[in-house]
């Protein structure tokens, strides 16, 4: 499913994209890789697209939980996981597999 274009994503800033009833957080890392996550922290439901990105992690804006952008795993000492979605880029367009 096409969800946007690469040029509309800023590096190291999240972007919220709605797909039906779902909200996804898209992230473009400084090396150009793009990741898609469920846009909801497992702790208190914080909007991950508004979080601070550092390396391959996003920090939830509500309580600073550290979550891997690559695999969705919450980092210790906290625990949990966010659903991730496979991203493919073709001719500058971003596609995800739901």
TrEMBL record:
Pfam families the UniProt entry points to: Rieske
Among InterPro entries, the record links this protein to:
Rieske-like_NirD (IPR012748), Rieske_2Fe-2S (IPR017941), Rieske_2Fe-2S_sf (IPR036922)
* Molecular function (Gene Ontology), one example: oxidoreductase activity, acting on paired donors, with incorporation or reduction of molecular oxygen
Key word Iron-sulfur present: yes
Q: What residue stretches are annotated with the Rieske domain?
A: 3-96
Which PROSITE patterns does the protein's record reference?
RIESKE (PS51296)
SUPFAM superfamilies xrefs: ISP domain
Q: Does the keyword Ligase apply?
A: no
Gene3D superfamilies attached here? Rieske [2Fe-2S] iron-sulphur domain
List the CDD domains hit by this protein, alphabetically.
Rieske_NirD_small_Bacillus
Which keywords describe this protein according to UniProt? 2Fe-2S, Iron, Iron-sulfur, Metal-binding, Nitrate assimilation, Oxidoreductase
Q: Which GO terms describe its biological process?
A: nitrate assimilation
- Protein name from the UniProt record: Nitrite reductase (NAD(P)H) small subunit
Species name: Anoxybacillus flavithermus NBRC 109594
